[in-house]
Design brief:
The complex is a heterodimer.
Chain A lengths: L34 H14 L4 E6 L2 E6 L31 E3 L6 E4 L4 E4 L15 E2 L4 E7 L2 E6 L4 E6 L6 E2 L4 E6 L5
Antiparallel strand pairs in A: 1-2, 3-4, 4-11, 5-7, 5-10, 6-9, 7-8, 9-11
Chain B lengths: L8 H7 L9 E4 L5 H10 L7 E4 L21 E8 L7 H24 L4 E3 L3 E4 L2 E11 L7 E8 L19 H5 L5 H22 L2 H10 L6 E5 L6 E8 L5 E5 L11 E4 L3 E4 L3
Parallel strand pairs in B: 1-2
Antiparallel strand pairs in B: 2-3, 3-7, 4-5, 5-6, 6-7, 8-9, 8-12, 9-10, 10-11
Helix pairs in contact in B: 1-5, 3-5, 3-6
The chains are: A mainly beta, B alpha+beta.
Chain lengths: ~190, ~280
């Protein structure tokens, strides 16, 4: 299990005050011998730079020191973190229509507009997808119509369609959940 | 009636004054649908402003796959790929306004080129004397926040003789040539249409919808009218089209069955067929 860093550790990187040449860390680092001194040096480095977390790796040994700068309860910084699947959009420039649920790992596809939800391209056509279907990244899942603009909502991941959350031809709100996709069961 | 000159890339380009729209044009003699072709090009990465035109469509379609009458050599069937949306609007606002603004651009182009004045039926049907001369079907896919792709499909009855419409369309369809009384140069009309569309989308990108909303309302025949609204999966409503919301939805005040009862609510219509009722 890995641990989530407190949110404030993600703020813009600050310039780090590096140790002076004479106080280089990590020489002959081991669990015995001089390790406690070097860990103390890491802690000092952490405090000096007002960092929340510092990880140091040398010769197969990894030491991570953390301090909680925030006054919030410690629990928020040790909550379980499930690593994101590789396809999951991680940047603001990618997805707008999907959010990931950390507890299930499912991706929720949401509506980018207020409109009417259609499961097929025309009333007498087959639905784009059914529950249980394997879906591919870029595959059309549904259409949401507003002002006679047919907005195709595409899957952003490979996976399995776990649940269709809206009935055909119903109105949907901005941000309303439309589908659950399990990215882990991509075939 | 004399037939109109064939579509020609050279003739379109000879009057084209745009910066982006129509810099790449695919002109086909025959296509199933220009929207389908443009959507495929968009998926393959076609540039912003790429245009697909056909002399004839074998499977032209409108809302919910309804067939669009697409005889050869007389009309305009044109689809334009529009990428991106600028920084002044949310994605939802951009997608809401593109269909309405497109209709406004087409009416302006027809006014300039053919001196025919059309009105709009919400959201984007083009009307000549309450009959439909043109329709716009936009199709979009949104994969990324900064790069929505919209295909704007425009079908216009230009030089088709009114008597050649299928019987079921004759009471509700019209052709521009009825008003112009002489064949309209489709090449020039396409070039003007692309220019007006580029200017309207540019205004939407840079300044938002405020002025465009005013211009749209001035052209909109639906506002102030008694209308019947047919939803896909709900009871129809009858009321007065009272206003246009900030995001382009038609706001309809339903008519109360009991004249002295409480004022009826205003219904925001975003996806429905709107029928103008006789006054």
């Amino acid at each position: 299990m890995s641990r989530r860093r407190p949110a404030h550790s993600k703020t813009k990187a600050r310039r780090i005050v590096l140790p002076q040449p004479g106080e280089e860390i990590g020489h002959e680092l081991s669990l015995t011998g001089g390790a406690p001194k070097q860990i103390q040096e890491l802690i000092d480095l952490l405090r000096r730079n007002n960092l929340t977390e510092l990880e140091f790796e040398r010769q197969g040994m990894r030491i991570r020191v953390r301090q909680d700068l925030a006054t919030r309860p410690l629990a928020t910084s040790v909550q379980e973190f499930i690593p994101a699947p590789p396809q999951q959009p991680m940047h603001s420039t990618s997805a707008t229509t999907s959010v990931s649920d950390a507890s299930t790992g499912f991706l929720t596809v949401t509506s980018p507009i207020v409109g009417t939800f259609y499961r097929s391209p025309s009333p007498d056509a087959d639905p784009y997808v059914e529950e249980g279907d394997s879906v591919k990244k870029g595959q059309v899942l549904c259409v949401v119509e507003a002002m006679k603009l047919m907005n195709e909502i595409e899957s952003e991941v490979d996976g399995r369609l776990v649940k269709i959350l809206v009935e055909n031809t119903k109105s949907v709100e901005y941000g309303q959940a439309l589908f659950l996709i399990d990215p882990k069961s991509a075939s | 009636m004399s037939s109109s000159a064939p579509l020609s890339l050279d003739r379109i380009r000879s009057t084209l004054a745009t910066e982006s729209l129509g810099q790449i044009v695919y002109l086909h003699h025959d296509l199933p649908s220009t929207n389908t072709e443009a959507a495929a090009l968009a998926r393959a990465g076609a540039r912003h402003g790429t245009v697909v035109i056909a002399e004839r469509q074998s499977s032209g379609y409108g809302r919910h796959g309804r067939a669009w009458f697409s005889p050869p050599g007389l009309n305009i069937y044109c689809s334009i790929i529009v990428r991106g949306m600028g920084n002044n609007l949310s994605l939802a606002q951009w997608l809401s306004w593109v269909p309405l603004v497109s209709a406004l651009a087409v009416t302006e182009a027809i006014q300039q080129t053919a001196a025919v004045s059309l009105l709009l039926k919400w959201p984007n049907d083009l009307l000549l004397h309450e009959r439909k001369v043109g329709g716009i079907l936009c199709e979009s896919s949104v994969a990324t926040i900064n790069d929505p792709v919209v295909v704007i499909g425009i079908g216009l009855n230009v030089n088709v003789p009114p008597l050649s419409f299928p019987e079921e369309l004759q009471p509700i369809a019209a052709s521009l040539v009825e008003a112009s009384r002489q064949p309209i140069d489709r090449n020039r009309l396409i070039a003007q249409l692309l220019l007006e569309l580029e200017q309207c989308l540019g205004e939407l990108r840079s300044s938002g919808s405020v002025r465009l909303r005013q211009a749209y309302m001035a052209r909109c025949a639906t506002l102030g009218r008694h209308v019947r609204v047919l939803f896909t999966n709900d009871h129809p409503i009858v009321g007065i089209a009272e206003a246009l919301s900030a995001d382009g939805a038609l706001q309809v005040r339903t008519v109360s069955p009991h004249p002295r009862s409480q004022p009826m609510p205003l219904v925001d219509v975003r996806a429905a067929d709107v029928i103008h009722l006789r006054e």
